[in-house]
Amino acid sequence: MYTMLSRSEDETIAFAQTLAKDLNSGDILLLHGDLGMGKTVLSRAIIRSICADEAMEVPSPTFTLVQNYDSTLGMLWHFDLYRLCEPSEIYEIGWEEALSGGDGITIVEWPERLGDLLPEQAINLYISPVEGQSDSRLIEVKKNE
Question: Which long-range contacts (CB under 8 A, 24 or more apart) does 88-91 make?
Fold first, then answer.
């Protein structure tokens, strides 16, 4: 496990850019954390870095549940499952396609909504607040293999 203290949104973005350089086609990122912890900030920075376009428009998929992007690593899937009611609903928005073939990158915000469908092999990022430091976040990275 790797742990990082981010004291600002800029530090979180810099961390995401570094993480993006180490990702490989087929990787699945599961972003855990409460509302407002920076999951979408982290996701946007990873997507922009992988797509090599820092000005790229990366809308939050909160209402669409999924956005996808072409990248040099294959299709990049960004799921936000906050509004998912039942784990089985994931099949209606491209889950099987995202995980099939082993190419591309899949980023999942609110992965606990997947229940038993949670992928076993994934990189888990746990984002939590730091007591007394409203802009700081503790980011823990754990890879399940």
Answer: 88/117, 90/114, 90/117
Angle (nearest 5°) at CA 115 between 9 and 120:
75
- Give the model confidence (pLDDT) of 26-55 as tens digits: 999 999 999 988 999 999 999 999 999 888
Q: Which regions of 23-116 does DSSP assign to beta strands (E)?
A: 28-32, 66-71, 74-80, 105-109
What's the token pair of residue 141? 């990275």
Domain 2-139: give its CATH code: 3.40.50.300
Residue spans of the domains in the chain: they are 2-139
Scan for tokens 């700081």, then name that residue. Answer: 136
Query: Does the pLDDT of residue 22 top 70, yes or no?
Result: yes
Q: Which two tokens stand for residue 49?
A: 């870095």
| Residue 53 in tokens | 């376009």
- Low-confidence winner among 33-42, 52-61, 71-80, 135-144 (lowest mean pLDDT): 52-61
Question: Could you give the CA distance from residue 29 to residue 13 in angstroms, rounded to a whole number?
Answer: 16
User: What span, in angstroms and rounded, lies between the C-alpha atoms of 81 and 53?
Assistant: 25
